[in-house]
Amino acid sequence: MLTVQAKVKMSFNFNGYHFDLKPGDKLLFANDVFASLPEELQKAFEKTNTVLPPFYDGEPLNGKTLFVFMQGAIGDVLCSTVALREVKRRYPDCKLWVSVSGRARPVLEKLPYIDKLFPHPAPIKEVVKAHYFIKAVEMVNTPAFDNLNMVKWFLWKFRLYFAEDETPEVVVDEEIVKELTPIFEEVKKLSGKSKVLLFHYLASSIHRTLPPKLLKEIEDLVWKDYVPIICSLPEEDLTVEVALEAYGIRAANLSYLMKDIRYLMAAVYLSDAVITADTATLHIAGGLKKPTVFITGPIEASLRSDTYPTVIPVRPNYIGKICKSPCGVHATSEPCPEAKIRHQFYSPCLESIPPKVIYFALKDAELLCEKDYPKPEKCPLCGFTGTFSLFEVINQHRIFECPSCGLQFPYPVKAMDYDKAYKGEDSEETLFQFTEAYKFYTSYKSLDEEEKERKKWERLPRFNILLPILTILPKGKLLDIGCATGNFLLITKKFGYEVYGIEAAKEAVELGRKKYKLNIAQALTLDELPEDFRGPYKVITAFEVIEHVEKPFEFLKRIYELLEDRGFVILSCPPYFKFENLALSYRKYKWWHHDYPPHHLNRFKPWTLYYGLKLAGFEEVVVFTEPLLTGTVLEGITPKGIDLKQDNGQVIHLPKEVTTFIILDTMKPLYVNARYLGNFMFAIGVKGKSGINWEKVLRDAIAISAADIMWRDDKI
């Protein structure tokens, strides 16, 4: 940000405004905006020092004037409307002045809570009249902006932090709506459809633009419900028609009608749903609360859409030769480096997204917009009754969160048919089919002879962490719930337990019995146990089971009843706070994972699992995860190469392979000490008192397991 004054009389057009300046007239510029001035105009100014109003830091604003100095593009300015509106809601007697580019001015000029709009650059003589000043020009490629949701970034700059409504304010021009309505009606009439899908596949940067081929594939999926239309602003692309013809896309191209941003707002208003790679269109659709799918590869989707209750973001699951999505690069003037290596134009991460994933996302966005829907009356774990927050819609299921224990669960509840899944016969298409986990249900037939099979599973981190713990637990009868073909039973046999297992899938039961002569029974619930399987047991285990059950409290209570006094239960489930989630915020919509219905019905935070076991009667409860390991660190971060500039001007480049090694080697102490950051969460519950020093046991078990997995020499 800099202040300059005119050295000569000037008259010029710039940044959407006309300026007439006399010698000595002062303007306030964002640095990069000044740099975009023609060189002859830059030379006509000289830098000067001016005392500006103090930066606003949360002081009461009634009766005061707040000057907001903004730079951003249309999408950024749309996001700012949340903070602008919230200022006036909290301080109705304040005056709100805003400086903004001419291109983005139409977004703000009809908002009732803005008292005066100024150009950017702003006249200093007006700026100095304000009591407080907000600088909102340090945007893309600044740490705070690149790591905060855009709406939250503006709330932070305004020292507001939260807003009553965190969706943008979008004022639609009624005259433009009247102008476009007949055309929209004609498109629906000619296509025979009753609903319009606005598809904006162009983005402000090449590497965020969707391949037209993807549009064609999505169009074929939505055609039975929607007629797609394309509405691109004039300056965005001149090749839309060529792309439509080349790929046989049936969408109606209404881009010729989009004279400026006001027309795009009206087009979104008249549409029934939106699919977009463009952030400005995203913010318009979010503000108008339209069912929307936001597709992004290079940038983290939640940083743009997380505050919008009707938007589903779709992110790729792409690992390439030199990058991993999201790479974090917001804007480039050419194809991304990965695309250039592959000799292509469009970003490979975007090309990797299956069209059906986007279609499923659209169906979920439609559910988000429904006003009346079934709501739970009672938490299935702690029994809380009251209001439950809707956390997300995913895979056509609504996920609610209990405000008492933190459990996340779907309502209505319907588990998947595991017999069909194990046979690969699940005919219903869902997101789950696009995950690696889906392959697990058809890979269980690949079994080695017993000792090799046991050693294979002992090296798996989620079982390896239990090896030290099993050595100190008392021996006796052990029941493994959801034992599959008996992999954990092979391990516990070695420790001297009398092992039993139950499994819902018939074929897995038969394989475990035949291959390893294990005592396994087929049962979907604990109430279906055969007579000789009804305990009591010294130890009961259930790995990745509790997230699948419809009534988790009843499940825990039944386990408690099956245990001997001073008996032990060991549970595991997906972790809510693993390193990957902490590094990239909670990935709310895990398209590429499997932590959603009908596969997983419950999500547990550490205290949720603890609370559930205590409610079921367990006196001692401890919670931990498997060790945090090298590979899982790289799931949460994307190391980048760096250039080191020396005093003599020489630049040393460290490729990402080197920086990766440095990061992972530096983090080795974390691997052997991380209590809650691993990929699977465990809980141990004791029916009675164990006398075990759990803090010491868990500390040592995690350290030993991390060393065993990463550094064990199998020759010793």
Automatic annotation (TrEMBL):
Coiled coil: none
CDD domains, alphabetized: AdoMet_MTases, GT9_LPS_heptosyltransferase
A molecular function (GO) term: glycosyltransferase activity
Classification via PANTHER family: METHYLTRANSFERASE TYPE 11, TRANS-ACONITATE 2-METHYLTRANSFERASE-RELATED
Keyword hit for Transferase: yes
Keywords: Methyltransferase, Transferase
One of the GO biological process terms: methylation
Keyword Chloroplast carried by entry: no
Listed name of the protein: Methyltransferase type 12
